[in-house]
Design goal:
The complex is a heterodimer of chains A (about 250) and B (about 120).
Chain A lengths: L2 E6 L7 H14 L3 E6 L7 H4 L11 H5 L10 E2 L11 E5 L5 H10 L3 H14 L4 E5 L6 H9 L2 E6 L3 H16 L4 E9 L5 H12 L3 E6 L2 H6 L5 H4 L4 H14 L1
Parallel strand pairs in A: 1-5, 1-6, 2-4, 2-5, 6-7, 7-8
Antiparallel strand pairs in A: 3-4
Helix pairs in contact in A: 1-11
Chain B lengths: L1 H14 L15 H13 L2 E2 H8 L3 H14 L2 E6 L2 E6 L11 H19 L1
Antiparallel strand pairs in B: 1-3, 2-3
Helix pairs in contact in B: 3-4
The chains are: A alpha/beta (about 250), B mainly alpha (about 120).
Chain lengths: ~250, ~120
């Protein structure tokens, strides 16, 4: 049975797009058909991780929302872009990076129902096992819709006071929206911290499972979203932790 | 393009209904109402019998609740292959109100982008 999984955080810069891209890659490596949709229409970026630029985008989510095409026409097969041994398939539904198109969405808005229909149609038409939704940070209509339709939600936070407070709000909202499954991912943790203690404290604070705790990584910073970390560094601690998160989401 | 026409017709039909749901509405709606709508959103449409079963209520009670939600404009009834389904009726995401000079500046960027593409 297909699953829709949202990756979210209250604050920006927590690592949503990197996490979404890497977890999706890990799932595709396991043999799953995975779709990744960038719903961060205001500040799209995950396409960069998959080696796409605006010239590679035949159609974007924006085109679908404006009625120019069907949703499946916005799906780009990026399996080969991973340059790894992939048993499954990976499709990316990007949002447009053109300033004019972002401005148009801001100015005119769009039909939220169409976005909802799009999620479900993607799963059906591409025969997806998993649809991963990369979201804009904070609480807005798109993120609330994503949370409302998701079978599972990952909330990412850093060990930072602003993140802690914002995560509390997000967890409360997710519970109100009755998301069936929710896990936390603590990211960019200084290596001087006690990871077991971080995990236990965060789980207790939010009364929510912590699927993984990722250390701050210079290798991740140096890669700078130019590729998929788990492909470049298959034996890294960050990759092992991302595999833990992936396994929890697939369970 | 058949799918596109269906969607456009759907949108025309839905605009004849008042209101329209925003995902934000789910946060402060009465629990029973929110529960029905959340189930419908998750499945992207459900029949009366499915909703009644999910709520563990009889079809008459369920129909009454659904009629109320349709009247409020939160859901709509659509006919699919001679059966009635209930779907969430989302309103349009509001456009942003910005200072005119900001739009003018963005218009200039759009123009420059279009000129670049034409070359």
């Amino acid at each position: 049975m297909s699953k829709i999984i949202s990756i979210h955080s209250f604050r920006g810069g927590t690592g949503k797009s990197n996490t979404t891209a890497n977890v999706s890659a890990l799932m595709a490596m396991e043999g799953y058909r995975v779709g990744v949709i960038d719903t961060d229409i205001q500040s799209p970026g995950i396409h960069v991780l998959f080696g796409m630029d605006e010239d590679d985008m035949k159609h974007s989510l924006n085109d679908y929302l404006w009625g120019k095409c069907d949703i499946e026409e916005t799906a780009h097969d990026v399996t080969a872009n991973l340059k790894a041994d992939i048993k499954g398939e990976l499709f990316l539904i990007p949002s447009s990076i053109k300033a004019g198109e972002i401005a148009r969405v801001l100015r005119e808005g769009y039909d939220v129902g169409l976005l909802n229909d799009g999620f479900h149609e993607l799963v059906e038409k591409l025969n997806l096992d998993l649809l991963m939704i990369d979201t804009h940070p904070g609480l807005n209509e798109e993120t609330l819709l994503s949370i409302a339709i998701s079978d599972a939600l990952t909330i990412i936070l850093r060990p930072d006071q602003q993140d802690y407070q914002g995560t509390g709000v997000t967890v409360e909202v997710a519970r109100k929206l009755s998301v069936p499954r929710m896990v936390l991912l603590v990211n960019k943790v200084p290596t001087t911290f006690d990871f077991a203690e971080v995990k236990a404290k965060v789980a207790e604070t939010y009364d929510c499972e912590v699927a993984a705790v990722l250390p701050h990584s210079d290798e991740m910073m140096a890669l700078a979203s130019s590729g998929i970390f788990v492909v470049h560094y298959p034996d890294h601690t960050v990759t092992s932790e991302l595999k833990k998160l992936t396994n929890r989401l697939l369970a | 393009m058949a799918g596109l026409f269906d969607r456009l017709q759907d949108e025309i039909n839905s605009r004849e209904q008042p209101g329209g749901l925003s995902p934000v509405d789910l946060l402060d709606m009465p629990p029973t109402m929110a529960s029905i709508i959340k189930k419908i959103i998750r499945k992207n449409g459900m029949k009366l019998s499915e909703i009644a079963a999910a709520l563990n209520k009889n079809p008459e009670e369920t129909q009454q609740a659904l009629d109320e939600l349709v009247a409020k404009g939160f859901i709509r009834r659509v006919e699919v292959k001679q059966e009635y389904w209930y779907k969430a009726h989302f309103g349009r995401k509001a456009d942003k109100t910005l200072n005119q000079s900001v739009w003018a500046a963005l218009d200039k960027v759009v123009e420059e982008e279009q000129e670049k593409e034409e070359k």
